[in-house]
Amino acid sequence: MNLTGKQRSFLRKQAVTMKPIMQIGKGGLTNEIKTAIRNTLEARELIKISILQNSDAEREEVAESLEEMGFNIVQKIGRVIVVFKASSKKENQKISEEVKKIGK
Question: Which of 14, 40, 43, 55 has the fewest CB atoms within 10 Å distance of its CB?
Answer without folding.
Answer: 43
